[in-house]
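Fig. S4 source data, part A: sequence.
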Amino acid sequence: MSAMRRTRWERLRMLLLASLAAWPLACGGGANGGGDAGGDAGGDGDGATSDGADQAPYCGNGTVDPGEDCDDGNDRAGDGCEPDCRWSCTSPGDCDDGDVCNGAETCAEHVCQEGTQAQDGTECVMAGGARGVCRSGLCAPVSCGNGFQEADEACDDGNLSNADDCLADCTLASCGDGFLRDGSEECDTAEPAACPTACGTVGARRCVDCAWEADCAVPVEVCNGADDDCDGEVDEGFGCVAGTSAPCTTSCGSAGIRVCGSDCKPSVDCTPPAEICNGADDDCDGNVDEIFDCVPGTATPCPTACGTVGARICAADCTLPEACIPPEESCNGIDDDCDGGVDEGFDCAAGSVLACMTSCGSSSVRLCTASCTVPAECPVPQETCNGRDDDCDGVPDDGFECVDGSSTDACTTHCGSRGSAVCSACRWGYCHPPARETVCDGIDDDCQNGIDEICPQTITTGLRDDGPIYGNTSAGIPFGDICPDGEVLIGVEGRGGCWFDGIQAICGKPVVEKDTSVIPYRYSVRIDPGTPMPYHGGAGGGPFSLHCHPNTVMVTFQVKYRSTEYVGDVMFMCSGLRFNYNGFNFDLELDDPQVVLGYADTCTPGTYIWGAEYDASDIYWGPSFHDEAAISGIRGRAGAYVDALGASAVQMVVNP
């Protein structure tokens, strides 16, 4: 605090103490019992008997009360009226702070005004009594650089710079003092200065008479990977050029480098190169192409289109192709190479079923072995229902009811007859009766239309055929004797000599004869006597009787006449009858005809009944329209003798 301000504060403090000492008198003394002297309200000398309040005067109320120099109503110090209601100053001496360096203070309108700052270098007394000099308005200690040359100084330019003529220690600058003077010296040092050499290195230039030499001296070659001494060589004189490298073989066999260290000595270790895509371990970390997708030429498992495990072959650029290459086919029962075939190239597909033929010719299967070879043996299969001997035991369909596809005619039909059945699915099927009755055994074999409905019961005659008449067809009286229905001719009787004088047909009745003593029944034909026919002709000559053998019938005859007047010779042929089953029913069959009857006139001895000596007049007639026909009658002309003769044939019908 300046001396002036301290003086003001002391003055204010004294005024406050005085006011406090007088305060009781001001508040309650006087004859009026505490009122204002002379009846002036408030005691402020305004003559008013009342100011609206009974208030004691005080400093700062803006009214100059008795004992106050002033009252500006505020407590600001230095504004002319101090907070103690005294003037801030009344003369310059009131404002003097005793500081020479800030100039002499003045008092104007009771306000202290600062003086003009003393010139730098003006002597002053510092606190504590030490000698000082003014500097920038302050009293500073006496020293070099204060701008004032003192007795022990060669100069004092007021600054501490060593780049001008007066150094910071207030001595005069000179060449060699180690300080560079601006504008007059290029250098002032014993140390050389760095400078660029012709080869770009940092050389040195000496300072001579405070000026740099023109030449830049090259440095001594050092180990730094550069041509320091500008001789065109790098790090000559050392083991290697710092930072350079030389090829070497790494511990894993790759081509590495050996780096020259900063001390121009080659490193002991051979540094491996960075890993590249080449299928080798370049960086000696025990892995091959580890920073790439894959190692060229190696296979990565992948699922093929057919579900097998294939491989993606790493390309030369260490990338995996999209295509998954199927593996080669192996013997495993699957399609490895995705070509649609299983175990191709082998004898068979492992586990596949192979058809084979057993030693007895049955069909069997054998399994392809795990090594894709076909077993030598063809195992016999179990017997199945197929009509064949599957298990090679010599018996087809053994173990089943019957042999599939076989048939039997020894089954019993639903009507008790013997029928036939077919084995189907190795079980006997329905026992079918015969389509038609085939055996006459007293049984309804075909289970329909009754018992033995096809067996012969009766024989009747049917269609008739009348043959021609041979001889004199104009003489005599015509006749025609036909056996009744169901009867046929079995002989003739009559009279004759040199010719037929008369003739009579003899009929017989075929009857079915059944022998039930055997099964199947035996059927035969019995000829019973039939109906006698009329006699035709005269009574000349002698009698004759021509009959077929028992149970045979007349089937053909031959007429020989000597002239056109009458019949000469007659020859008859007879056949036996038998039944024959034709697949549908029974019919009659004739045995081979036998020449059993004949008549020759006696007028011409030596004429044969049957032989090669017949003349042209021989006439033969027999039934030709049906195998089951027999002669059923004679026709002709007769008078005194038989003039002409012919026959009729009839079909014999078997009736069941």
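Fig. S4 source data, part B ends here. The mean pLDDT is 80.
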